[in-house]
Amino acid sequence: MNPTIPDLRQLRYFVAVAEEQHFGRAAARLSMTQPPLSQAIRALEETLGVELFARTRRSVELTTVGADLLPEVRRLLASAEALRPLAQSLARGEAGVLALAFVTTADYGLLPLLLRDFGARYPRVRLQLAEATSDVQVEELVAGRIDAGLVIAPVPPRHAAQLAYQPIARESLVVAMPSALSGRLGGPSTDDWHDEPVRLRDLADAPLVVFPRHLAPGFYDTIMDCYGAAGLAPLIGQEAIQMQTIVSLVSAGMGVALVPQSLRHLRRTGVVYRPLAGAVPAIETGLVWRSAEVSPVLAAFIEIVRAYAAAVGLERREG
C-alpha cells in the first residue's frame, strides 16, 4: 500500500475519535486498546500533513481542518461500504451498463416491450441505445463496441461462428402506399391502417421504395421473393436506409413500400397501410450477441428476450 494514502482503517478510527471526542471511549467502541489507536491517528495526521485533533490531558477536539474533513471522510467510508453490495449486484446483472443497438423496425413494436420489462426488473442498469442497420450492428458487435443488437435475420454466415442468435418476432409484410393510390384501387383513401387486402399485381406499375440490399439482404430478398412469387419484377424507384425515410417517400407519392406490420404505428399524412392478399412472407427480428462474451447484465436481458420469444411460440436457441 502507498504510505502516502490513508487506509480505510485509519479513516474509521478518525471518525470514531471525532464522534467520541475521547481516545479511551473511541478505543472501547472499536474493541481495541488506546495506544494503538493513538498511534494510528498520529500516522494518519502525518500522512495527510495536518493536525486533525487538538489534544490536552483532559480532552480531544477536532481542529478546523479536522472538522471540515469529517463529512468528506464519512462519505468516503459510505462509498467503500457500498462496494460489496454493488459488486454483488453487478455479478447478478442487477446493475451495470448494457449497450444495445436496434433496427428501425424494432422501434415500433418490439423494442418498447422489451425495454419496459427489462427496466421494471433491472432499474439500476443503464442502457446505451443506438439505432443502426443490421449490417452495422454486426460489425459493431464483432468489434466489441456494443453488447447486443436487435437485427433483421439472417446473421451473415461469415460471422455466424462468433455470434449467437435468438429469434424474437416474426411479422407479416404489409403495403405502405400513397392514400391517393389506395383510393384508385377501390379501397380507403384516408391515412390509417385498413384491413382490406390489396393484390401485389395491382401495384406492379408503382415504383418500389426499398432498403439497399447490402444493408439488409434478408429483408431485401424477402421483398424480391414476394414479387417473384407473384410473377412480377419490381420497378425500383428509390432506396433509403431508414424506415422513417421510406415511409416519408411513400407519403410524397414516390412509390409503395413493403414494410413489417408494426410499421403501421408510424403515421404519416398521405400514407395508407394495407395487408397483402394471398400468401404473405414474414420478416424475422432477433437478438444477436457475441457468444463468448456474455456479461451478467447481458445474460439478464437475454433471459427476458427468451421469455418473450417463448410466449410468441419461437424456439429457444442455445448460445
Describe this structure in words.
The chain has 319 residues and is an alpha/beta fold. It has three domains: 8-81, Arc Repressor Mutant, subunit A; 91-168 and 284-311, Periplasmic binding protein-like II (D-Maltodextrin-Binding Protein, domain 2); 170-282, D-Maltodextrin-Binding Protein, domain 2 (3-Layer(aba) Sandwich). It has eleven helices and eleven strands. The strands form three sheets. Strands 3, 4, 5, 6, 9, 10 and 11 form a seven-stranded mixed beta sheet that branches. A two-stranded antiparallel ribbon has the order 1-2. It has a two-stranded parallel ribbon with strand order 7-8. Strand 7, helix 9 and strand 8 form a beta-alpha-beta unit. Helix 1 (8-20) crosses helix 3 (34-48) and helix 1 (8-20) packs across helix 4 (64-81). The radius of gyration is 31 Å and the shape is elongated. The two termini are 42 Å apart. The mean pLDDT is 88.
Q: Which secondary structure elements does this structure contain, and how are they paired or packed?
A:
Blueprint: H1 8-20, H2 23-29, H3 34-48, E1 53-55, E2 60-62, H4 64-81, H5 83-91, E3 95-102, H6 110-121, E4 124-131, H7 134-142, E5 148-152, E6 163-178, H8 179-184, E7 208-210, H9 217-229, E8 236-239, H10 243-251, E9 257-260, E10 271-275, E11 282-290, H11 296-311
Parallel strand pairs: 3-4, 3-5, 7-8
Antiparallel strand pairs: 1-2, 5-11, 6-9, 6-10, 6-11
Helix pairs in contact: 1-2, 1-3, 1-4
